[in-house]
Amino acid sequence: MSPFKSVISMVIVGALVLAYFSMFQVHEAERAIKFRLGEIVRADYEPGLHFKLPFVNNVRKFDGRVQTLDAEPERYLTGELKNLIVDAFVKWRVSDVRQYYTTVRGDTRQANMRLNEHIKDTLRSEFGRRDMQDVISGERTQIMDILRERGNEYAESIGVEVVDVRLKRVDLPPNVSESVFARMVAERERVARDIRARGDEASERIRADADRQRTIVVAEANRDSEELRGEGDARATEIYASAFDRDREFFGFVRSLRSYENAFRGEDDVLVLSPDSHFFRYFERSELDD
After folding, report:
1. Per-residue pLDDT band at 154 (split at 50, 70, 90)
2. Which of 48, 90, 93, 163 has the most other CB atoms within 10 Å of its CB?
3. Residue-wise over 212-235: b if at least 16 C-beta within 10 A, else e?
4. CB 144 within 8 A of CB 165
5. By C-alpha distance, which of 288, 265, 283, 258 is closest to 273?
């Protein structure tokens, strides 16, 4: 290879190396700052391909996605001086990369620490002005809105934006929770006993009323049956009397036949009477002939 071609090749390689170190790419999920000998010269890069002076400019990139601050649960006092364990989280992202780098050196952990301290101070202030009922259910949404608003006011100073603040859990301390649970169980048991007692009272009342109605119904049925039986007996007596008046001898004969039928129902029936007894008067031929 000739010296000229060697020089050309070296120039081309040098140009490629220079071009490689002169370009940098910013992705959509990144924020970039360009420095000139340690001094910030630009921090508003859009996603895409950009250029810099090699060995004079250097570029630092930071994560521009939404970050999560999930601190350990903390104990807070309400306005009625009751302890509550609060577990909250914060969603934030970089909004001003220049301010972000200047205040926390672009360190996510430092940003989390400073946001966490501010959120805890705000929580302490808001909980201290409310009672337990308001904190747990009544004004929970309002507290989260206040946290997000005040968090954003502070976050501007470190170049970030608070996207959302949520209270995951608001609980009583374990020892208090156990006592509250025990009271709840006792109260539920008392209510259950009261309901059972009222149920027993109602069942006894219903049973007594049913027994009373049964007695009344049975008595009325017996009364009606006795009346019907008396009417039937009176009617039967009337019919018998009428038949007797029409032909007394024939009526006596029919009654005797029924008596014979009832007296000799079985094969082993035995009746010991005198032959001239009145019971056998219709067996005498003379009576039948008359």
Report:
1. very high
2. 90
3. eeeeeeeeeeeeeeeeeeeeeeee
4. yes
5. 283
Q: What would the mean pLDDT of 57-66 be, rounded to a whole number?
A: 88
What are the distances in angstroms from CA 123 to CA 83, 106, 108, 134, 223?
13, 26, 22, 13, 83
pLDDT tens, position by position, 254-275:
777 677 666 666 666 666 666 6
Look at residue 69 and give its three-state secondary structure.
strand
For tokens 């049956």, name the residue: 225
CA–CA gap between residue 115 and residue 70 (Å, rounded): 11
Q: Are 35 and 57 within 8 A, CB to CB?
A: yes
Residue partners of 172: CB distance under 8 A and separation at least 6: 82, 83, 84, 85, 180
247, 44, 17: which is closest to 159 by C-alpha? 44
pLDDT for the residue 17: 67
Comparing C-alpha atoms, which of 103, 108, 98, 105 is closest to residue 154? 103
pLDDT at 109: 92
Query: Per this entry, what is the length of the chain?
Result: 290
CB 116 within 8 A of CB 102: no
How far is residue 140's CA from residue 131's CA, in Å, rounded to a whole number? 11
CA distance 176 to 184: 12
Residue 40, pLDDT > 60, answer yes
The answer, yes or no, to whether residue 138 has pLDDT greater than 90, is: no
Tell me the torsion sign for CA atoms 130, 136, 138, 144. Answer: positive
> What is each CA distance from 151 to 115, 200, 232, 247, 267, in whole angstroms?
7, 59, 101, 123, 115
Q: Is 0.70 surpassed by the pTM of this model?
A: no
- CA 204 to the chain's CA centroid: 35
